[in-house]
# Entry
Amino acid sequence: MHINKDKLVSMAVNANVDHPTIRSYRGGFDGRARITLGTGGITYSHAIGDNCMDLAGDHVEPGVSMANPDSGQNAAVQTFSCVGNVVTCLSGPAAGAQGFVTGTHGGVEHAMGWFAKEDLEKMQGDERFMIRTCGQGMKVEETPDVFWINLDPDLLEVMDLKIDEEGKLVFPVVTILPPYMMGSGLGSSSLMSGDYDIMTQDKEANEKFGLNNLRFGDFVAVLDHDSTYGAHYKDGSVTIGVVVHSDSFTSGHGPGLTVVATSENGAIKPVVDEEANLRRYFGPLAQRKGL
# Structure
């Protein structure tokens, strides 16, 4: 693919581990109130490639949850950071360790980072990080009708996506969802930061669309949603996202998708591939970036 890499801006942004917070009980879709583990901090127990459903937690973020304490600077962290960007630990026992951005989570305004387990285990929860951002504004000559956001160009290259005989972008995903499955995040004016959630309150729908086996880092397609300027229904459109946080018991919520590609005229052809997960690409991406 011919990517406009020479026109893309690469810029450093800085963030810290964002400490978890809690506000007592939270009501669920079933009328029950719960106190659960949730967003923020460092999650040692769950990583990209692990199941994101039926956890003893809510909106759990795998790996490192990062934010800048200054709200304006954090907005840049959330908007500039793209899936696949290199993130470097700058302090603490794991200083010098490098990993990858795996997405952003709206509402709490976190960017999530994956690190190798041996590096993650060294982290203490007060680390600082530098993200080498690149990807916003990306265009691909062969896909003029696809709007790309939140994706590192090197990651796109190692994914080695194909164009079919009809000129559509063939995109491997673990499942293909109808538009009515999407909830929290609809109404946003842009998905260049944050995410929007798959609703998981219907057990039969979860079984039908394979959501019980959904993993952190899975690529997912949503039909009839155009996310060029915030997600909305448009017949024939397609949105592709990557799972960034776990399931939730809150009405209208569930695993979150950071959008990486969308087409209002259906120029994306999703195909089911059980291995369509970020973890599949980390090795080749590390080699390409010289890590």
Remarks:
- The first strand starts at residue 11 and ends at 17.
- The chain has a mean pLDDT of 96.
- DSSP finds five helices and 18 strands in the chain.
- The longest helix spans residues 71-80.
